Amino acid sequence: MKVLLEDLGKIDRAKKGKVYKAGTVFIGVSATRGGDVHYLDEDGEIESKYATVEFNGKYNSKYIYYAILSEHNRWINRYIQNINVTISDLKAMEINIITDINKQNEIVNKLDLLDSWIENEERLIYMWKNIKKSSLEKMLI
């Protein structure tokens, strides 16, 4: 089902000093051409260069985050013409969602597992690069 982002929650510019609830999604809007999309895992502050999306609780917020990620680049390339994104632009973003909360939870669990695997692989790559660098330094001394 296609829905407008504004129908899923409150969208506003992040306010300095405000503590946002875990599950808030924030999207770069200043001098970023739409910036990246982030998910707040625990309560915390968000810089004012972001717009926040605080959800109404009807859907899994992490699922909506993934749905925004899947549409974000296509949307940016199609609709955003300058380096700033307006709140009204974000409100008009259309995303595809599945309304069944159990399916949403299942998708989130699988995508979180994939993210975890990716992070582990990135750590391994970083470790091997350091081993290689250290070995090269020892060989060239």
Characterise the protein shown here:
- The protein contains three helices and eight strands.
- The chain has a four-stranded antiparallel sheet with strand order 2-7-4-5. Strands 1-8 form a two-stranded antiparallel ribbon.
- The mean pLDDT is about 90.
Concise summary:
With 141 residues, this protein is α+β, with helices and mostly antiparallel strands. Helix content is 45%, strand content 20%.
Shape: globular
Largest sheet: 4 strands, antiparallel
- The stretches of 5 or more residues where confidence is low (pLDDT under 50) are none
Oligomer: single chain
- Overall SS class: alpha+beta
Q: What is the CA-CA span between the terminal residues?
A: 62 Å
Beta-strand segment tally: 8
**Helical element count?**
3
Give the strand content: 15-25%
How are strands sequenced across the largest beta sheet? 2-7-4-5
Helix content: 40-55%
Output mean pLDDT: 90
Order of helices and strands: EEEEEEEHHEH
Helices, strands, pairings?
Layout: E1 2-4, E2 9-13, E3 19-20, E4 25-28, E5 37-39, E6 44-45, E7 50-55, H1 61-79, H2 87-91, E8 94-96, H3 101-139
Antiparallel strand pairs: 1-8, 2-7, 3-6, 4-5, 4-7
Keywords:
globular; 4-stranded antiparallel beta sheet; 141 residues; single chain; two-stranded antiparallel sheet; alpha+beta
